[in-house]
Design a protein that fits this description.
This protein has 10 helices and 24 strands. It is an alpha+beta fold. The chain is globular.
Length: 434
C-alpha cells in the first residue's frame, strides 16, 4: 500500500522542521522523515546556537538580521505555544575580534546597509568592556603544542561589537518547537525511519521508508544534514552542482568561564576569535562553550559515514580549543578531562548554504547549512517555501532568480545567491563564520 503527500521533507533538524512548518502554513500536506527519535536530535543538537550577523555576503547578513526579530518573538513566529516549553533567545551581544580574513570595513558596510547597530572598539575599549581578556594579536592561529603558540603577541586587537547578538539556549528544543508548530498546522512526522530509496514513479517521487509503506509526493526536500550527500546520490541530483557538500566532524567543549567573566555584572558577549581560531559564548550556570573556527593549522575531519562518527569529545581537540581560549583569558582554568559534545556538520565548501531546486523536477535541497545557519532557521523555511512555490508554478529560478522580501526589515534577498550552481564565494572566510 502506498500513501501520498504533497511534499516529503527528509530531515527534521532545525532546517527540515522550519521548512515543514512553512510548507504546511501554505496548505501543503507534508510528511517529514527523520532517522532520529525526535526533531533536532542530529547535527542541530551539536550547534552552539550563536545568533550573529557577521557574514561575507549581503544575503547572509540580511537573513540573519531578519531572523533575529523572529527569535525575539519566537512564540509569535511559531504561531503555537509548545506545551513542552520554548527555546529562548539570550541577547548578550557579540564581538568579532579584528583579523585580516574578515576586514572590518566589509562588515560595517554590510551592517550599515542592513541597519544593524554596531560599535567599533579599540584594544582599550575591548579590555574595559570584557574583563580579563588579553587583547594581544597572535594571528595566524598555531598548533597549541608548537613553540610558536607561546610567543608574545605582535600587536593589539580591536573588535566589532553588535549589541543585538547572543545565543539560543536550547537548539534541539528550537527544532522541536518548529516541528510542533508544523504538526499543529497538519504536518506529519515519521521518526526512527530511514529513507531506503527514492525514485520517480510517473510524475511523482516514490520514497521508500524502512518500517512503513512508501510515500508518493510531487515534491521532495532534502534537508538531511550530514546525510544529505547520500540522499542526493540516491537520485543523482548533483550533476550540475558547482558547490560540493560533505559531512565534517566537529566538537564544542564546555568549561567553567574564567573568574573575571563570572563576576557580578560582568559583561560576557559571545566572541568570534579567528585570531586564535575559536569562538566562545556564555552557557548556563557559570560555564561557557568553546568551539573552533577551522584554522589552517588544524586538520579538518571530513568523514565518509556520519553514522560511524565518534560523538564523544576527544582529548586532542579539547586541548587545542580550550587552550586557545585560555590564551585569550589567562585566568581561565583548563580541566584535565574534556566535557562537551561532538557532532557531524553538513558543510558546503565555501561555508555558504544551498537553498535551491535541482535539475530533477520536484527535488529541492536545503543543505550545507551546519555550523553557521542555525541562526537563520526562522527564515530558512520561508526561503525554501518561496523557491518551491515559484518553481512549481513555472518560474525558471536558475535564470530568473526568485527574490524574498523580509517582512520585518523590508530587505530584499536574491535567493539565487544560495544556488547550487553559483561560483564559490571569493569573500568567504573559509570558516564557520561564512
Amino acid at each position: 500500500m502506498t500513501t501520498t503527500a504533497d511534499a516529503v521533507v527528509i530531515g527534521a533538524g532545525v532546517v527540515g522542521s522550519a521548512t515543514a512548518l512553512e510548507l504546511s502554513r501554505r496548505g501543503l500536506n507534508v510528511l517529514a522523515v527523520d532517522k532520529a527519535g525526535g526533531a533536532g536530535m542530529g547535527s542541530t543538537s551539536a550547534s552552539s546556537a550563536i545568533i550573529r550577523f557577521n557574514y561575507s555576503t549581503w544575503e547572509g547578513v540580511a537573513a540573519s538580521w531578519e531572523s533575529k526579530f523572529r527569535w525575539e518573538e519566537w512564540e509569535e513566529h511559531l504561531g503555537y505555544r509548545d506545551p513542552n516549553g520554548l527555546a529562548g533567545f539570550h541577547r548578550c551581544g557579540m564581538i568579532v575580534l579584528d583579523v585580516p580574513v574578515i576586514p572590518r570595513q566589509t562588515m560595517t558596510d554590510l551592517f550599515d546597509r542592513a541597519g544593524i547597530p554596531y560599535e567599533v572598539w579599540d584594544a582599550e575599549m575591548l579590555a574595559n568592556r570584557v574583563s580579563g581578556i588579553d587583547t594581544g594579536s597572535f594571528y595566524p592561529p598555531k598548533q597549541v603544542d608548537s613553540a610558536e603558540f607561546f610567543e608574545d603577541p605582535h600587536g593589539d586587537l580591536g573588535a566589532l561589537y553588535t549589541p543585538d547578538g547572543g545565543y539560543v539556549d536550547d537548539p534541539r528544543l528550537a527544532a522541536a518547537n518548529l516541528a510542533a508548530a508544523a504538526a499543529h498546522q497538519g504536518a506529519r512526522f515519521a521518526f526512527r525511519r530511514r529513507v531506503s530509496s527514492i525514485g520517480r514513479a510517473g510524475d511523482v517521487w516514490r520514497v521508500e521508508i524502512e518500517g512503513q509503506e512508501p510515500i508518493e509526493a510531487p515534491i521532495v526536500v532534502n534537508a538531511a544534514g550530514p546525510w544529505s550527500s547520500a540522499i542526493n546520490k540516491m537520485v543523482g541530483a548533483t550533476d550540475d552542482f558547482t558547490i560540493e557538500v560533505a559531512p565534517m566532524r566537529q566538537e564544542v567543549h564546555r568549561v567553567q568561564a574564567p573568574p573575571t567573566l563570572r563576576a557580578p555584572n560582568a559583561e560576557f558577549p559571545a566572541i568570534g576569535d579567528l585570531d586564535l581560531g575559536i569562538y566562545v559564548r556564555p552557557e548556563s550556570g557559570s560555564d561557557m562553550l568553546v568551539g573552533g573556527t577551522e584554522p589552517e593549522c588544524d586538520p579538518l575531519e571530513w568523514i565518509e559515514d556520519p553514522d560511524a562518527a565518534n560523538l564523544n569529545p576527544t582529548v586532542g581537540r579539547y586541548e587545542a580549543q580550550v587552550s586557545r581560549a585560555a590564551r585569550r583569558f589567562p585566568d581561565m582554568t583548563v580541566p584535565n578531562r574534556p566535557k562537551g559534545i561532538a557532532g557531524v556538520y553538513d558543510v558546503a565548501e565555501d561555508w555558504t548554504p544551498i537553498y535551491d531546486r535541482t535539475a530533477l523536477p520536484g527535488f529541492y535541497v536545503a543543505i550545507g547549512t551546519s555550523g553557521n545557519q542555525f541562526k537563520n532557521a526562522p527564515i530558512i523555511g520561508s526561503i525554501m517555501d518561496r523557491v518551491i512555490d515559484a518553481v512549481e508554478n513555472g518560474r525558471d529560478h536558475d535564470n530568473d532568480p526568485v527574490h524574498y522580501t523580509c517582512p520585518h526589515t523590508g530587505h530584499d534577498l536574491n535567493l539565487g545567491s544560495f544556488s547550487r550552481r553559483r561560483e564559490i564565494n571569493p569573500d568567504s572566510t573559509g570558516t564557520v563564520m561564512g
